Amino acid sequence: MINTKSFYLTDTGKVREHNEDSVTILKNINNEYLLVVADGMGGHRKGEVASALTVAHLGKRFTESASIGTKIDAVNWLSDNINEINKEILDYGEIHENSKGLGTTLVAAIVTKEYLIFANIGDSLGYVMKNNKLHRVTKPHTLVNLLVEAGDLTEEQAKNHPKKNVLMKALGAAEKAEPDIFVVDNESNAILLCSDGLTGMLNDEQIEKVLLEENLTVEEKVIKLIKKCNARGGTDNISIAYLVRESGDIA
Description:
Blueprint: E1 4-11, E2 21-27, E3 33-41, H1 46-63, H2 71-95, E4 103-104, E5 106-111, E6 116-121, E7 125-130, E8 133-136, H3 143-149, H4 155-159, E9 180-184, E10 190-194, H5 196-199, H6 204-211, H7 218-231, E11 238-245
Antiparallel strand pairs: 1-11, 2-3, 3-4, 3-5, 5-6, 6-9, 7-8, 7-10, 10-11
Helix pairs in contact: 1-2
């Protein structure tokens, strides 16, 4: 059994009129955990439909199964369900004329005693904390990240690039979803998922500093991160799912 403490929260921020993010942390009867953050897009409340469909679909599939199974089973489960969600979003857009073009990012993590697996599509990100150091696991599917990887932009230039929010992948954007899936070192003692409302306001070092504050609970750390984003302008919805494994209980 994994001893954990977890908390998730979403906040509209200081600029947006409504919140298009969805977030959850769930546990099944086998004491396996699913963390999900989805950042909807499309405007006029379309984005929140796509993100809510995503979280609801994954949550239902996860909790109705006693166990995800082996590592390979988990990889296939994520891939299959993400493609089912993609079709669901596309179908919704076809049925509801005023919702054409809706979509969402997704970052998810499955946490068991035996393995830790991340999946992402879009620019919501997943991290692990290991040896008091925050490590980014996923890569944002953005135009500027492609340019950084190609050597055409520096990380610093990317932060202020006018097209920094242009996504190359999202759920609902193509007939087939192609998420990245990462099987991660299972000795990480904490998992953080977030929408770009967090990473757009705070860099990894600033996030790490809050997570390492010993006098704060898991819940207080999440709330403090959101407050810091809003103090810096809160230009986007902010969503965080954070899970900490108790020391001595890491597989």
